[in-house]
Q: What sequence folds into this?
């Protein structure tokens, strides 16, 4: 695995998405969770969920590539929830994104979504 390349792609996507998660649209942090917690008034035990990760739209195990078109920036929570417990059956990215948007709107997504004021 080429982690430098992946890191570069993640940074690129992170900036391109205005530092918001591809799925839930919450702000993410890339290097400093403490500053992030203060800036967004999020308890540090919750801000860990909003770490910026590289998300493969087409998962690696389904031959998804480390490439600009296949990497988006997603928070750790959304990334994990898409794949957790279903290594070969993750929903496709577009379907999952629609679900997440509905769940966030209903206040039923990550722990921050239900306790939150940073959503406008
Ligand atoms: Zn997210």
A:
């Amino acid at each position: 695995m080429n982690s430098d390349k992946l890191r570069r792609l993640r940074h690129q996507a992170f900036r391109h998405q205005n530092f918001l998660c591809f799925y839930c649209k919450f702000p993410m942090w890339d290097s400093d969770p403490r500053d992030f917690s203060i800036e967004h008034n999020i308890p540090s035990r919750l801000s860990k969920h909003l770490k910026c990760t590289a998300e493969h739209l087409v998962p690696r195990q389904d031959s998804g590539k480390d490439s600009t078109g296949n990497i988006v920036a997603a928070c750790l929570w959304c990334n994990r929830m898409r794949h957790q417990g279903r290594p070969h059956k993750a929903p496709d990215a577009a379907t999952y994104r629609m679900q997440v948007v509905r769940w966030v709107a209903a206040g039923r997504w990550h722990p921050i979504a239900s306790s939150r004021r940073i959503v406008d």
